[in-house]
Every structure is written in C-alpha cells, then in structure tokens.
Amino acid sequence: MIPFNRPYLTGRELQFISEAHAAGQLSGDGQFTAKCSEWLESQIGCYKSLLTHSCTAALEMAALLAQVGPGDEVIMPSYTFVSTANAFVLRGAVPVFVDIREDTLNLDENLLDLAITDRTRAIVPVHYAGVACEMDSILDVAQQHGLLVIEDAAQGIMSAYKGRPLGGIGHLGALSFHETKNITCGEGGALLVNDPKLVDRAEIIREKGTNRSQFFRGQVDKYTWVDVGSSYLTSELCAAFLWAQMLEARAITDRRLAQWQRYHEAFEPAERLGLVRRPIVPEECSHNAHMYYLLLPDLEARTRFIDEMSKVDIGCVFHYVPLHPSPAGRLHGRCASGMAVTESTSDRLVRLPLWVGLEPEQDRVIERALDILVSP
Ligand SMILES: *Cc1c(COP(=O)(O)O)cnc(C)c1O
User: Fold this and answer.
1) pLDDT tens-digit readout, 3-37
2) Is the Cβ–Cβ distance between 324 and 78 less than 8 Å?
3) Is residue 376 predicted with pLDDT exceeding 90?
4) pLDDT tens by residue, 207-256
5) Across the chain, which distance is largest between two alpha carbons, in Å?
6) Best substitution site from 55, 126, 151 to test ligand 1's pocket, by max atoms within 8 Å of Cβ?
C-alpha cells in the first residue's frame, strides 16, 4: 500500500516533547514556542511570528486584525480550502471569488479590478502548491485601493517569490503545520505579522483579548481584558514536535523537491503526447514541492485514474471542490468573474503521493500512472 501522505518523523520530536515536560510548562508560549517563532522570523523575515493551533486560527486572527465586518468584502480564489473563506464569513464579511490563472492555478491578478468595490477591505492570495501568486501586481492593486493583503501561505513554507519568502510579503500571512503540510506538528499554524502596526493587537487577540504578553515583558503592571480575542495559542507539546521538524526543514524540502523533479521528468513525454498537463512554476518562484499534481483531460479520465491507482493500492486524491457553488459559498459569497478555470481544474486535477520516505516506491507510482495514462 502506498498512501497519499505519510507524516515524516525526523527522530527528535519525542526527545523535545520530553524536554518540554521536564521544563514544567506544557501550555503555550514556552521555550519551544519561542524557538519556533524566532526560526520563522529569521527564515521569513517577518516582523513577528505568532504560533497558533492551526492555519485556520491564524486566518481568523487576520480577519479580526483586518477589522472586517458585515457587508465588507474580501477578494479570494474559489479554488481554495474552506478556511480561507470561513475566517472572514465568521466576521460577517462577504468572500468575493475570482477565477484562477491557467498556469499556476493561483488567483488571477488581472481580475482584481473587476472585483473591487467601495466595500472591499482585503485581498487574500492563496499560494497554491507552494508556488507564489503574482505578488507585485497584487500589492500594487492593494496599495492603489488601500486594501490589506493577507497571504494564505498554508502550503508555502520554504517557498519564495523573487527571493522573498511566502507569508512575509503582504501585511499578514498564515502558515499551516497540519499533518498534510511539508513541516508538521499534527495540527498547527502561525500568523506572520509584517506590518508592525498590527503586532500589539495581534498578541492581544491571540491571548483571549488580554494584554498578557505586554505584562510578561514588563510593559504593563497587571494584565486585563482589553479587546476581543480568543485562544489561538498552540501547546508546548506541539511546538516541541514542530521544533524538531524546523531543524530539518531544508533537508525535508530538498527530499520533496527531488521527488517532485522525478515526477516532472517522468511525465514530460506524457505531456508532449497531450495526455496530461504538468505543474507550471514561473521563473520568479522558488517552490517547496508541497505537491505534485497532474491535470487530466476531463472528469471521467480523472475518476478512472484515481480508481485504477487505488486498485493497485496507490493513494491519489483530488481537490478542491470550488467554494462558489457550494451551499455555504452561495449563501455567504459572490462571484466577481466567470469561473471556467476553477471549474475545469477542480474536475481534472489529481495529486500524486509525495512524502519523505516514498523514494523507494516512487518508480512504482510512476510506472503505474504512465500505464493508466496511455491505455485507452
Ligand atoms: C491546509 C490549508 C489551510 C488550513 O490549514 P489548517 O492548519 O488545517 O487550519 C488553509 N488554507 C490552505 C490553502 C490550506 O492548504
């Protein structure tokens, strides 16, 4: 059986967890949370990194920081995970969906002008598969209209756009350390704050609306309830696990990149024959091999591909079901453009297994996939 994903252990996770226990603090913001945050700050160059219990939590914090309310609009792709939209819908805001680019499957920056109204407050670029959105254009549009840019960089750790790490480019960025992401602690995330003006309030929102962080730094002499907030911290147990993974982030990424490249070379002849389309990574993007996908001719071919792979115990999956025609998407959001690329991608995309440790079995995945692609 070759599963679609298998979480990787570097070998030091349990040692760090027992160190956290020995240090006598298992709740958030202990020594391992500090190590992880500092690592992210130096790696990404963000002003402040705040560890959270998920990327969903980081996006919810971003929505609170953006101060969006009922009727405000937030532009995002429909081809994304539900949390991108939910975070803003929870504040009463309206997700305004735009179509994606044919090449990167990222939000099409040329559609932003169509989507902007006098209620628009923010743009949420999602860096699909760890390949950056066209950030210079997005930042230009945002600046012209006074909008916040909140990067959904859930898949983007160790990726960059024109040399700038993802999540560190907009006003705010959100990372995920979910089991299916490159660097993981099971469930985890981080809010990256790039605009220094947002830091104080970000800390308060994360600490249940109290100024506890300022208290611990000695900036105030007691801590109290000062704003809205919630519990977005992650436990030290998760941070300890995550620290082991961060220490290996470069090696993990390199091993994923090698697998990605092997798939890419193996499917080149199939692309030339018109049987599949392979991922496209623009020159200015360095990616992290978060996923390897293929675009098949149509839904029927994709369904057959996944079924045939599963018959030989190889786990392949598809995603995303677009948000705009979903029951909640129709209720809470609206479309600002046609959705032809989103809908066609959703029908045709299949993700292949890619995880550290797959190496000895990757040829079997490739051989079987090629057999299925060429057989009528
Ligand atoms: C994984 C993912 C999320 C959610 O991450 P969690 O840490 O599971 O909350 C959000 N957006 C995108 C694009 C994702 O891939």
Assistant:
1) 999 999 999 999 999 999 999 999 999 999 999 99
2) yes
3) no
4) 999 998 888 889 988 889 999 999 999 999 999 999 999 999 999 999 99
5) 74
6) 55
User: C-alpha distances in angstroms, 150 versus 193, 308, 358?
Assistant: 10, 39, 34
**CATH classification code of 249-374:** 3.90.1150.10
Ligand 1 centroid vs 24 CA: distance in angstroms? 31
Residues 6+ apart with CB under 8 A from 286: 159, 160, 163
Q: How far apart are CA 348 and CA 300, in angstroms?
A: 8
Closest-CA residue, ligand 1 atom 1, reads 154
pLDDT tens track for 242-255: 999 999 999 999 99
pLDDT of residue 6: 97
Residues 138-181 have pLDDT tens digits of: 999 999 999 999 999 999 999 999 999 999 999 999 999 999 99
Q: How far apart are CA 232 and CA 57, in angstroms?
A: 6
Supply 163's token pair: 């040399």
Q: CA-CA distances (angstroms) from residue 271 to 72, 260, 265, 338, 370?
A: 43, 16, 10, 27, 11
270 vs 375: CA distance, rounded Å = 12
Amino acid occupying residue 9: L
Q: Which atom of ligand 1 is nearest to the CA of 180?
A: 1
Residues 6+ apart with CB under 8 A from 98: 75, 76, 77, 78, 107, 108, 111, 112, 114, 115, 335, 336, 337
In SS3 terms, 59-128 reads as HHHHHHHCCCCCCCEEEEECCCCHHHHHHHHCCCCEEEEECECCCCCCECHHHHHHHCCCCEEEECCECH
Contact 56, 188 (CB under 8 A): no
Domain boundary assignment for the chain: 13-247, 249-374
Distance from the alpha carbon of residue 259 to the mean position of ligand 1, in angstroms: 22
In contact, 266 and 366? CB cutoff 8 Å: yes
Q: What is the CATH number of domain 13-247?
A: 3.40.640.10
Buried b / exposed e over 225-240, threshold 16 CB at 10 Å, is ebeebeebbbbbbbbb
